[in-house]
Amino acid sequence: MPAPAPVYSEFLRLYPPFDRFEAEALAFLDLHLKAARFVAGNVLVSPNLGEPQSLFILARGQVLATEAGIDGVAGITLSVGECFPIGALTGRRPPANSYTALTDLEMLQLPAAKFHQLMKISPAFTRYCSGYLAGLVTQSRQQLQARYAQQASAQQSLNTPLHTLIKRAPISVTSATPIQRAVEIMGEHKTGSVIVVNGDGAPIGVLTQSDVVQRIVLGRVPLERPINEVMSHDPMTLPETASAYEAMFAMASRGVRHLLLVDDAGRLTGVISEHNLFALQRVGLGQVRRAIESADTTDALRQSLREVQQSVFNMLAQGIGAEQLTQFISTLNDAVTERVLQLNLLQHPLDDIQWSWLAFGSEGREEQTLATDQDNGIVFLPPPDRDPNTDPNPEPARARLLAFAQAVNADLDRCGFPLCKGNIMAGNPEWCLTLDEWKTRFSNWIRNPHPEALLNATIFFDFRPLHGQRELAKRMHEHLFEQSTENSAFQRMLAQNALSVAPPLGMIRDFVTETDEDGKAFIDLKKFGARLFVDGARLLALAHGTNAASTIKRLRRTAKQTGGVGDEVEAMIDAFNFIQLLRLRHQHLEAGQGRPGDNRIYVEPLNQLDRRILKEAFRQARKLQQRLKLNYQL
Hints:
about 625 residues; alpha+beta; Jelly Rolls; CBS-domain; Four Helix Bundle (Hemerythrin (Met), subunit A); four-stranded antiparallel sheet
């Protein structure tokens, strides 16, 4: 009687992606997997060996993966439960990496033909292979969501489609409807507004009760006039399939209370109010925005920032991604800064000066996490001298702007944005400059890229205007790209600076770590994680003149250009987002224990899935750095 086939599925269930496999797929693996042993030093897969003949799953021991053609770069270690080479088998091509036994191994092998058969019968495996890193990141977010879900059980999902929240059909009129009839319709339906649609049913305007008072009654407009003369034009719309999060973010960023929903053809299908969304959140995002806008003290603004942190927790609990979270944090932090500026302008009027408040660094990229300090500056134009033959003197205007900026910096500190330790703040005369002075600084840093200039480039070349004359920031960007896109020597030095920090991948252990005062191993995910993507994306943007603020937009917009990252862009974005998500999760936990947030991720508590994704994220960072090496022959 033949011996029963070994059951490998019980072992595989402990490791992703096999823990998500269908019963049929696990039974298929039990039937077709074969055990094999290899001694240390054996090369299992290599570009020199051609297209791989098997999928390898590591059951015991360690495998060293090294990227072909990269000299002087240590490989990374694969641990039990990991499998390879997914990309080569999926694409039916030779692998990009070599895989060598570091120790004696026990492996499970699946023949290539059975690998492709498994993809046909297992949707879970197909998803894993087609989006290796994206699938793991999604799984990690689901784990995080489940961990927080119990605490947020009273709240509906922010992923709820908006069309499910529509309570009644929208009340609409045409542009020719008399004002009096429109007001009567509002009364008949007990609604605070009517939507104006064109002949195709697409919204083109809106009239609210406050419009009736401000524009019609106080403006003494005859009631027989058509509504299109007094309506608000181009109302904000969202697709009816958009999520509640997208609506909340739009309301928070635009400061509005209503959004119009449209179908695929652009026709009006409903109206979503902040009241509809309030039930989804203990802290309404629009409510936070209005609290910020109406605050008249720094204490009130500080309380609003606490509510922002609570909102971030709610979003973590609902599985919202890192890109949306950091953008949301940056948007409401912008609103706090804007309010502080407005309050201080009452004491320091600057109406006679053309100026703009600039955000640098992570705020300039709209990538703020919960642990952030101030990085800001001012650009201005000196008022013209009375004598047309004399150059304008910037000093009187600078003195007034500095007094204003120092008050703003102090208030932002009281609100919860600590003063910058490097004094990169608008209240420092070094960073309160005329447009010509900023241009000169940029030119000098690019033409003479000494170490301090390169450091300045990594801070000040990520900027955007938050208040004032935004045209001044646009002119700064134009000058920056004029200088940087043609200066290959500067780009090369910036590339060397970007490569000065390597991904913390270990040869024997998973990661290269630091230790804290208690001897616990950690990784600084800002310095050794996010920075690697930020620096690489910034260089690509400067080289191509791409005026995109965020790291993700920079990677996407330059991906297909010469020297871009090509088809690997989405994997790199997934990697960056995962690192950002780990930072946010850690900072939230720190805040919950009354400690200031930092970027230290302790390795020991990480679960197996997060360790694997973090390792893959660092691999993607190394691929980005390798692209820079190839571009600049470093």
